[in-house]
Amino acid sequence: MRTTTAASPPASQSASPSAGPGGGIARGRALRVLDSGPWRRALAWVLLGSLLLVLSAGALGLAPDPAQWWAVATGTADARTMFLVQELRGPRTAAAVLIGAALGMAGAVTQAVLRNVLASPDIIGVTAGAGLGAVASIVGAAGFPALLLLGPWRLPLAAGIGALAAGALVLLFAWRGGSGGGFTGTRLVLVGLGVNAGLGAAVSWLLLRAELPDLASALVWLTGSLNQATWDLLGPSAAVAAVAGAGCVVLGARWLPVLALGDELAAGLGLRVRPAVLALLGLAVVVAGAATAVAGPVGFVAFVAPQLALRLFRTAQEDPASAALTGAVLMLLADLVGKNLFPVVLPVGLVTSIAGAPFLVWVLLALSRRR
Questions:
Q1: Cα gap 104→309, rounded to integer Å
Q2: Is residue 125 within 8 Å of residue 199, measured between CB atoms?
């Protein structure tokens, strides 16, 4: 009787436990673990946070030298470096981070609450309202000297009031009466586009009536530029954005997952849907207004940042915190591109609009394919 023995595997396969099909399965499992929710979000936070630090160092003109960073942080660097960082580059960098984080957060809240990817503050008229308020405060200072008594609070207050008024106007026109009263994301976007156009016409009328110095200041502000950023202007805007932004993060973490289930189910779980929606939208409007007060209407950041964060962090819906980090990175990157990659310095609002327009077209095409 003939006996047979099983052929032994090649030495290369037996020597390495990770080679062959078993090793491929192990690597696939490791990749799936890294791509899972908690690990994916933690990795995204680390990578974007590191990128924010690198871009901030580049914007401040600091070399990748921890000793120089420590000297600047402790105030022991030479006088020239301290002047450049504190007086020239510091306000601009801080403004980019503040505006990007605020717009990203505001966009995430409006998109999540209204369940519409197009429902960002710059599309539904909130940013235009803030722009109208700020331009009115710039142009009207000559006719109403009492406005100058507000000091650095003049622009943030005017922009915040304008943003709130525009948001209230959009909600008023988009509201449907009856027992099932309310508004849908699509209806609000359409109304917002109309309000946006009307507010833009009002801004143009104010510019036509402005004196030359005020006209120059308003035009620079309307381009979405960081050139006018100062510590005096950043202080009030940062205070308003920090308070309203904290409300967006805290209340958003509590209410947005429930609202995503639908109005009826959210109400069944004990959430007062309409007050929650109005509170979140009001906070988003205030945050967007505070950001607009610093640099003017910077386009597409509030629209792009939540959608990029949604894909990078793989969250179930738009998240204000991750969108804020993504928006800060986008603003810093746009500012560096505008300052260094062109023969002349481009306003950051122009750079974000150039980069954001193709993204808007891509989103619209993706939405049309789903239907």
A1: 9
A2: yes
